[in-house]
Each structure stands twice: as C-alpha cells, then as structure tokens.
UniProtKB/TrEMBL annotation:
The keyword Aminoacyl-tRNA synthetase does not apply. This is Sulfate adenylyltransferase. Gene3D superfamilies: HUPs, Sulfate adenylyltransferase. Residues 170-375 form the Sulphate adenylyltransferase catalytic domain. SUPFAM superfamilies: Nucleotidylyl transferase, PUA domain-like. Pathway: Sulfur metabolism; hydrogen sulfide biosynthesis; sulfite from sulfate: step 1/3. InterPro entries: ATP-Sase_PUA-like_dom, PUA-like_sf, Rossmann-like_a/b/a_fold, SO4_adenylyltransferase_pro, Sulfurylase_cat_dom, Sulphate_adenylyltransferase. HAMAP family: Sulf_adenylyltr. The keyword Nucleus does not apply. Keywords: ATP-binding, Nucleotide-binding, Nucleotidyltransferase, Transferase. Residues 5-163 form the ATP-sulfurylase PUA-like domain. NCBIfam families: PRK04149.1, sopT. It comes from Methanoculleus palmolei.
Length: 384
C-alpha cells in the first residue's frame, strides 16, 4: 500500500485515444496558444497526477492563496503557483481567447493539451518574484525567466493530448505499481539534480535504513545552465544502482519538471510531487532547491517541522568525510575541527572535472568521475 495521493485522489487528465483522435481531427478549427517548456512540462505533470490535486492551471483564488498563505483555496498547503502566462510575442492572437474557449496548447508546434479557459487575470510578475523567490533580482535564474512571461494568466482545467517527456519518465500510477510489486510499504524519495556525491550516497543509505525502499528521482526537464546535464545525472546514478545498491531496495527514474529554484518553498512542492508518486518519506538535505545565497540552507528543515503534508520529511545536515573519525559525518556526529574534514561542494566538483582533475575519492567515486569526463564541454559552457 503506497501513500495516498496529495488531497486523496490521483488526478488523471490524459485523454482517451478516441477523445484524442477527435480533437486532432478538428484541430484546424481551434484557437491555439504557443507555450514554453515550463508550460508544457506543467501541463503534462498536471495530467498524469504528479501535481494532484491540481486539474489545470491555477485560477485567481488558488494563485493568490498560494502567494499570500501558501495554501490552495481548499485549504491544502501549496507553495509554488502553477500558472500559464503565455508570451505575447509568440501569441499575437492571445486577445481573441476568451473565458469559455478551449484552445489547444502548442509546444514547438505540436499539440500538447486542451485548456478549458475559466479565468483570465493580470499577471503581476514583480509580486510573483518577490513572494515566490524572495527577490526581484535578475541574477536569480527563475526571476530572469519571468521576463519572458506574458502579462495575462490563463487558467482552467486541461486535457492532455500528447506526452512531452520520453517513455523512461514514469507516471505516478506506474511508480505506485512498481512499489507495490516490490512489496514496499514505506518508500523514501531522493530529490536531486546532481550526479551522486559520496555525501549523497551516505544520506541515502542512512534513510534507507529506516524504510523499505529508496526511490532516486532526479529532476530532468528544465534546469539552470550550470547544472549537470540530465543524461550525466541519470547515467551516473544508473551506475551506482547497478554496481553498489541492492536492486531489490533501490529504484531509479527521472522526473521531467521545470525546476523552481525557490529554496524551502520549492522543497515543499518537490515533497508533494513525491507523495503523488507514492512515497511515504522525503529526504531534505542542505540547501535543497537553492541557488546562489538566496535561501537559508536549513530553512526547509524549519518549514517541514511545522507542516503536515502527509509525507514524512527526513532531515539531514550536510555530510562530509572526517579523517579522524574515518567515516562520513555531520556536525551532529563529529566533534573534530574543519581541518580534519574533506568537504568539496558540487560546484567545486564541476570545476575539477572541467579542469581535468580527479575529485578526492572520499568525495566522489573515481569511476563516476571518469564517467562524467565526457560531459566536460557542457559543464565548461555552463560555468561561463
Ligand atoms: Zn570526526
């Protein structure tokens, strides 16, 4: 028995084959809205139930509730607005789309979903940036991205015509079946957008001691330019799962979402998603979903202590190797000074790989570092 979906019911807004064919047959007569990657991935995640209980893009009551109180209008905690504010430049006919219309959402010209427009309201981007990201600075990647958004939010339920992500991305229904098949009653999710650091492995093992299974669910989809490419993350985790972890206890699948670097707020959103995928526990490490120095690295820990999302947060301090203890430790478990610690951040590891240096063995497994060398040109470009 996996965890109940958030809000109690797993949403399914994927059209049946017959309904899909009917829409595609009459598509030339429909109004259209061109959407960006975030819009397409959000539509897909809504439709497959990853964002349950959302059935579409948020209306004004949900949107303002999330901004002001981190709550949907039904009272459930929700921290990241899921909205559609289409770009004006790519949508000259946007003004002709009215409440009651059901335009088709196009991504790179391909029909993705039907939006049943229930509301249109102005989008205050400054307010959004301030409330969600705590800053209006362009140096924040999500704030910068907001510049491209339109000035009007279109909301309403959606029906999915076509998937955006590859077949390797499982739906919540599929992961739930997989957990059941494995007989896992308790499953801890690990959120990541990095290849496995030894410190990550340590935390995963600690967490797995407490539950039946570990679900490694790296974010692919839309990331910031200095993150590792998704293929590097998946490939290195696949290696770890194949060569180190017991197959019966660890399951790996990608999650294609548009990453929101909103620190603690994003951490709550990421936990809710994992509840929908059937997880009972969620690992919250240091500076989860953070960027730069915008967020308190342990702000998410404080937030989760005061929330009841129906998924249990497993809180971990930053871990590193201690030469005196001769093991992985945290500030909670080791009393030695920093000079005894081997502490290398993921940013430093990226730089070492670009420079052709081998990260220390207690920081990254050498075979993983070797495997990442081929992503050097990509990492180099991202560091610029
Ligand atoms: Zn120590």
């Amino acid at each position: 028995m996996t965890a109940l979906p958030y809000g109690g019911t797993l949403v399914n807004r994927v059209l049946s084959d017959a309904a899909r064919r009917e829409i595609l047959a009459g598509i030339d007569d429909r109004k259209t809205i061109a959407i960006d990657t975030q819009g397409a991935l959000d539509a897909e995640k809504i439709a497959i139930g990853a964002f349950s209980p959302l059935t579409g893009f948020m209306g004004e009551a949900d949107y303002s509730g999330v901004l002001a109180r981190s709550r949907l209008k039904n009272g459930l905690t929700w921290t990241i607005p899921i909205i559609l504010a289409p770009r004006i430049a790519e949508n000259p006919g946007l003004g002709d789309i009215h409440v009651g219309d059901s335009p088709v959402l196009l991504y790179h010209g391909e029909p993705i979903a039907v939006l049943h427009v229930e509301e249109k309201f102005p989008f205050d981007k400054t307010e959004f940036a301030r409330r969600v990201y705590g800053t209006t600075e362009d140096a924040h990647p999500d704030v910068k991205k907001l510049r491209n958004a339109g000035d009007t939010i279109f909301s309403g339920p959606i029906d999915l015509i076509n998937r955006v992500s590859g077949a390797d991305e499982l739906t919540p229904e599929e992961t739930r079946k997989e957990f059941d098949r494995r007989g896992w009653e308790t499953v801890v999710a690990f959120q990541t957008r990095n290849p496995p650091h030894v410190a990550h492995e340590y935390i995963q093992r600690c967490a797995l001691e407490q539950v039946d299974g570990l679900f490694i669910h790296p974010v692919v989809g839309e990331l910031k330019k200095d993150d590792f490419p998704a293929e590097a993350v998946i490939e290195s985790y696949q290696y770890l799962v194949d060569h180190y972890y017991p197959k019966s206890r660890v399951f790996l699948a990608p999650l294609a979402i548009s990453m929101r670097y909103a620190g603690p707020r994003a951490a709550v959103f990421l936990a809710i998603i994992r509840k929908n995928y059937g997880c009972t526990h969620f690992i919250v490490g240091r500076d989860i979903a953070g960027v730069g120095n915008y967020y308190d690295p342990y702000g998410a820990h404080a937030l989760f202590r005061n929330l009841d999302l129906g998924i249990e947060a497993m809180l971990f301090r930053e871990s590193y190797y201690c030469r005196k203890c001769r093991s992985m430790v945290t500030e909670k478990t080791c009393g030695h000074p920093e000079s005894d610690h081997s502490r290398v951040s993921m940013t430093q590891i990226r730089k070492m790989i670009v420079a052709g240096e081998q990260p220390p063995i207690e920081v990254m497994r050498p075979e993983l570092a070797d495997l990442l060398v081929k992503y050097r040109p990509y990492l180099e470009a991202g560091l610029k």
